[in-house]
Amino acid sequence: MIYVHIPFCRSFCTYCDFYSEVAAKCRNAEDAVRQEELFRQFAESLAAEAGMRGQEMTDEVNTLYIGGGTPSVLPLSVFERLMKALKDSGHGGPFDEFTVEVNPEDIAEKGEAYVEGLLDLGVNRISMGVQSFDDGILRFMNRRHDSSVAKKAYSVLENAGVRNISIDLIFGLPQLSDQQWKETLERALDISERGMLPHHISSYQLSVEPGSMLARLVEKGRFEEASEELCERQYAVLCETLATAGYRHYEISNFARPGYEARHNSAYWKHLPYVGLGPGAHSFDSASLRRQWNKDDLAAYIADPSGCIGYEELDEEQIVLEKIMLGLRTADGIDEGWLAGHCEKETLARALAGGSLIRSGDGRVRIPEDRFFVSDAIIAELV
Predict the structure, then answer these.
(1) DSSP conformation class of 100
(2) DSSP assignment letter at 374
């Protein structure tokens, strides 16, 4: 299971706190040459790290996920260099699931040839950040596309031959009315010109992350978060609408048509080991109970990818906490016997009696969907 972090964006979204550097559109030939060289240097450092860490990679979960940042700002040559390095390390696929994150404007501009190039490299799943179909809200988020571009990009993906497409949506903004949210979901389900539902939908409540532009707006009194009541209502509409459309709500923020659950992300929620490549990427080794990360520093990474590593040793208590927190985010839940051995017996009994947890009939317990919105409070009581 491999994750690759691409630290480039054309611009920064209002709500985002992920590490990235601006790779703006080039205004002249000199800028284009400079950016091409930066991308080339990054690709070589990425290849070097992949080569150094090949022994850490396993096929226990045979997935590759390229996220960011905005991977779709990159030329195909960077992806080609990465795939060659992974192949040389003995982990070049084919992968059961190979996902690349994209932004609508990049796909609409680069067209089918670019997407076909990704497919030729083994990509079989695309995750596209649509976020909203309201152009005013997209401008507030500082997204580069509008709703028409999102629909066009989806058509490009379908016409190029992508058969597993996920889209992201955001709810819980104070300026997003319940009616606008219902219309957003209707447009999401109608995004395909072929009349096909998106294979997967991830939907997240807007949160104020430290270091983001949104956090600065809050500090200056220029933005106030949506009420808990509004967020809960919109989450309920989300769950009901997608259930009616035939989606399985398999994780708090994720919905899939049958058979299209994300294998890569599902492995995170099962607390399985993974290797992260690129500046800002994290890794987890379940055997040594070690979490490792690359520092958020592109220049240092390009200079020496092996010289910007940090790590921590996790103790058993941290591992138990993470397993409970991650497992109870999912519809599959966790093994009741294991949970009973790692939390107070009375607390578990109280959660089951009060309906905060239910038995699945297969020896597992889970949070019912109608309590997903308050899952953090339920988990906090257990741990």
Answers:
(1) E
(2) G
